[in-house]
Amino acid sequence: QVRLVESGGGLVQPGGSLTLTCVVSGPVDDIGDMGWFRQSPGKRRTLVAIIRRGGILDYGDFVKGRFTFSRDDAKNMGTLSMNDLTPDDTAVYYCYAHVRSGGWTTSHWGQGTQVTVSS
Predict the structure, then answer these.
(1) Which residues contact 13 (CB under 8 A, 6 or more apart)?
(2) Are 44 and 86 contacting, i.e. CB atoms less than 8 angstroms apart?
(3) Measuring CA to CA, which residue among 52, 44, 25, 34 is closest to residue 91?
(4) Mind listing the pLDDT tens digit for each residue in 25-58?
(5) Which residues contact 41 (CB under 8 A, 6 or more apart)?
(6) β-sheet bridge partners, residue 100
(7) What is d(CA 4, CA 18) in angstroms, rounded to the nearest whole number?
(8) What is the DSSP annotation of 23-40?
(9) Considering only CA atoms, which of 79, 101, 104, 84 is closest in space to residue 20?
(10) Taking a C-beta distance cutoff of 8 angstroms, is the pair 117, 18 a contact?
(11) Backbone phi, then psi, for 7, in 5-degree steps?
């Protein structure tokens, strides 16, 4: 079955950097949209970054040039590099991918990885 496996979360000081990686494993025929969302306690899940089919790249308004998202379709992998982190970036970060597998196209989420920005 298709799984999204995230890695790279953790604790970082304000102004620091982290890189999150998401690997799509299993019987993957094709990946359409792929990206990252985040959710803080009591808040709804919001877009961080996404690369849509056709290569269109979108970021959440709060990113303001601090994050870079890229994907390597040969490896079914997406990488989110985050710089100049602030406590407001503390959240669980979820990888998302729209995957075609065995003739079916469905949306998949990773289990989430915690990012904590604190001194």
Answers:
(1) 117, 118, 119
(2) no
(3) 44
(4) 999 999 999 999 999 989 999 999 999 988 899 9
(5) none
(6) 30, 105
(7) 19
(8) EEESS-SEEEEEEEEEE-
(9) 79
(10) no
(11) -155, 160
pLDDT tens-digit series, residues 45-102: 999 999 998 889 999 999 999 999 999 999 999 999 999 999 999 999 999 999 999 9
The DSSP code for 43 is S
Place of tokens 């597998």: 101
Q: How far apart are CA 27 and CA 1, in angstroms?
A: 6
Question: In which residue are the tokens 């970060």 written?
Answer: 93
Q: Residue written as tokens 């359409």?
A: 32
How far is it, in rounded angstroms, from Cα 68 to Cα 82? 7
